[in-house]
Each structure stands twice: as C-alpha cells, then as structure tokens.
Amino acid sequence: MTDSDAAAVVEAAIATRRSVRAFLPTPVPRELIERILDVAARAPSGTNMQPWRVHVLTGEPKERLSAALMRAHAEGAPHGAEYKYYPDQFFEPYLGRRRKVGWDLYGLLGIARGETARMQAQHARNLVFFDAPVGMIFTIDRRLEIGSWLDYGIFLGNIMTAARGHGLDTCAQAAFAPFHATIRRELGLADEEVVVCGLSIGYEDTAAPENRLRTERVPAREFASFRGWA
After folding, report:
1. What is the DSSP code (8-state) at residue 86?
2. 71: helix, strand or coil
3. Closest Cα to residue 49, out of 166, 128, 154?
4. Which residue segments constitute the domains of the chain, with CATH numbers given?
5. Segment 8-12 long-range contacts (CB within 8 Å, at least 24 positions apart)
6. Cβ distance 127 to 74 under 8 Å?
7. Alpha-carbon gap, residue 69 to 179, rounded angstroms
C-alpha cells in the first residue's frame, strides 16, 4: 500500500465516522473488539499513563445493565454526573449547533416541538445502547487531573476510527454518566472509578430513520488561524 493509499483509508475511516443510533443484532466477535481496543490504546497520554479503563458488555450482562438503567430512568434517576460536560448556559455558536442537531434528529423521527415524552423516550434509547450487540462503559480514576481526561478523548476517538476501519459503527454517549450510581452497583466499580461515558458498537441498521442524520462541520478556516504562509 502506498502512502497515498494509506492516507485515503485513514481519512475515509475518520470522515465516515458518525453517531449511529440504531444497530442490527449481528454479533461482533470478542477478538475484533479486543483488536480495536489494542489499536486504540496506541493513543498518546502524558508520560504514557494510559488513564483509561473499559468495561465491555454483550449478551446477558449488557441486557442486565440496561434493564437496571431503564428502571432507574423510570424512577426519576439520575442524580447528575460526577463531572460537568456542558456549561450551565449555552451561548453562540454552540447553542445554535446543539439545537440544529437535536431538531434534525427529532425531525427524522417525526418528533415535534413540545412532544416531551417522545423526546425523553428517544433519549432513554441511549441506556439500551441503541440495541447494539456490544456496549462499553468507560471510567477514569477520580484522582487524575484534566490532562488525563484530554488523553482519554484521544483514546475514544481512536476506538471509533478503528471501528470504522473494520466496517463497524459507533455512538459515544455521555448519557450514561449521570447514572453512575446504578452503573457502579451493577458493574461493581471501585470507589475511585468515575463513569466518563458509554459507547455503542456494532453494525448500522440502515433502515432506521434516525441513521439518516448527517451532521455538518465548519471548515478549518473558521476555527484555525494560519501563520507563516505567504
């Protein structure tokens, strides 16, 4: 494979990665999941600390966790994540981007403004990993600092890119973080483990309307400054 061929493969894996919210039940072999994680773990981390811990679930263990999470959801949980993902108040351009992706998704599902119950039901689909055959829960030691969280993001990106290289799709899900108490109990997490997020992984259900969502990205010239070129 030439350098240009390799670049095309990598770029295709990155460019075709998107959040898939409906999966086929097709099983994914453990060997493939382990290979993806091994490759993703080549992510750089400060002094090679490798601050990630991954709990990989399929079959009955995944179903049991999802059932517990759905019960917690029905009972009015969660009580909030152990870290802040979003600001208390959104502002532009982030507010507009957030609203657009939400309404674009709901539009594909036929959910109108004001249909709060249907919105909540769609959000709860996170807790069953959107029916993906494999679910992952990511945790980090609470004694680590923000640098390790930055490293964690690179690792998560690697997982999703490597998965695409094998024809799999994913959805990274912060929706799991507020349910940390339920997850801690069901998975027997140590006290020092903070739930970072979850991730669904499997094969896309191409017939699902929500999977027609294609989000936009602003070009580099809008977020980068270039110095030193004529």
Report:
1. S
2. helix
3. 154
4. 16-88+127-214 (3.40.109.10)
5. 9/165, 10/161, 12/164
6. no
7. 7
Backbone torsions φ then ψ of 176, nearest 5 degrees:
-75, -25
AA letter at 127:
L
pLDDT of residue 3: 82
Give the residue from 75, 52, 16 showing the smallest Cα distance to 194.
52
Rounded CA separation 136/180 (Å): 14
Q: Which residues pair with 58 in a beta bridge?
A: 134
Instruction: From 121, 96, 98, select the one nearest 110 (Cα to Cα).
Output: 121
pTM of the full structure? 0.96
Q: Tell me the pLDDT tens digit for each residue of 193-204.
A: 999 999 999 999
Q: Which of 210, 211, 217 is nearest to 107 (CA)?
A: 210
Q: Could you identify the residue written with the tokens 């994913």?
A: 170
CA separation, residue 18 to residues 47, 154, 183 (Å): 30, 16, 25
User: What's the rounded Cα separation, in Å, for the pair 228 and 48?
Assistant: 32
Give dist(CA 198, CA 195) in Å, integer: 8
Place of tokens 């679910």: 135
What was the pLDDT predicted at 219? 97
Judge whether residue 79 has pLDDT over 80.
Answer: no
Q: What is the rounded distance in angstroms from the CA atom of residue 150 to the CA atom of residue 127?
A: 25
Q: State how far Cα 29 lies from the chain centre.
A: 20
Of 195, 197, 169, nearest to 21 (Cα)?
169
H-assigned helices in 76-129: 94-109, 116-124
From CA 45, how far away is CA 148, in angstroms rounded?
7
